[in-house]
Amino acid sequence: MNQRPPSPSTQRSPKPNPPAARHWSLGISLVFVALLSLFWWIPRRNPNPSPTATLQQTESPSPPPSSPRTGETPGSTGRLSQAPGLEPGRKVDDEIARILRGDFITNIYTLSSNTTMVEEGQYPPIFRKFGTEEFEELAKVACEGNLKRDPSAAEYQEILKDHPAARDSGRIHSGIYLLLCMGGNIRDRYNVQGGMKLAREEELDAAMKIADPELREKELRSIRWFADNEIAMDRLKQQAQIDRTRRLLEYLYGDMPKAVFQRLLSIEPAQGPDRIPDP
After folding, report:
1. pLDDT value at position 266?
2. Residue 275 and which of 19, 36, 75, 83 are 20 to 30 A apart at CA?
3. Are strands 42-45 and 54-58 parallel, antiparallel or unpaired?
4. Which residues pair with 106 in a beta bridge?
């Protein structure tokens, strides 16, 4: 079983004149996304989003804007002596601090100049112990099967052992566990996005059979608009998780060079790790 917990189905903005087939196919896609997500998500979406979107990650309440490129809040580095299991001298950004305290974190997806979608998520409670010796022992057990049967998991291990900061940390299995969760989620999101594209093509084919030219063009525009936004939003969530994983690894090892992370990111594990029980 994967560590990634199921999440509630998200509410989507209304689509004008939706056909029954569209509700059915997109409904299935959203349920699938929800079941594969690393987060429990609580969406609040404004209508009429644009597929050209950027991502902001902020701390609640009164979140300041973040960098669209990195998703990190400017000036968000702080000491984490208040969170359990954290090294007093280690500095991380506010979002990682909130994860390790078990707090909710907030993502703001900017869909156009005046519309946004806000989602709040929370990592499993066991991540309050992330970076501790206890978490390392639990991760070692959870990853044992992956390391035996999956060459990709073994490749994670080899790369981390070659990285001095990871090798000397005594937390190799914690990193492997995190990477297996990320790798499995990325693979699942690619599958979901492929399903969304297939559903879009099927709906476009069906709309082409509408006899009225004006109604047909209206339906085609609506299908493209809605599907493109769904795909763009899923890609933003995927990139947000990748960025978050990199920063968790930086916290864990104190250093995660871009070249090393790119090697780790290129690996496609066969499946996620066994679930670490929550405390």
Report:
1. 93
2. 83
3. unpaired
4. 58, 120
For residues 173 and 143, the answer to whether their CB atoms sit within 8 Å is yes
Distance CA 102, CA 269 (A): 27
Query: 180 burial class (0-12, 13-18, 19+ CB within 10 angstroms)?
Result: buried
pLDDT in tens, 69-83: 233 333 333 333 334
pLDDT in tens, 189-242: 888 999 999 999 999 999 999 999 999 999 999 999 888 888 888 888 889 999
d(CA 157, CA 12): 40
pLDDT (0 to 100) of residue 115:
61
CA count, 13 A, side-chain hemisphere, 117? 27
Neighbouring-strand partners of residue 92: 78
**What would the DSSP string read from start to end of 200-220?**
HHHHHHHHTT-SSHHHHHHHH
Alpha carbon 190 to its chain centroid, in Å, reads 12
Residue corresponding to tokens 């006899």: 211
Q: How far apart are CA 76 and CA 96, in angstroms?
A: 10
Q: Angle, to 10 degrees, between the axis of helix 213-253 and the axis of helix 172-207?
A: 180
Entry pTM: 0.68
What is the model's pLDDT at position 14?
Answer: 40
In the chain, which residues have pLDDT < 70?
Answer: 1-91, 111-115
Sorted by where each begins, the domain ranges of the chain are 20-45+126-265
Q: Tokens 């979107």 map to which residue?
A: 53
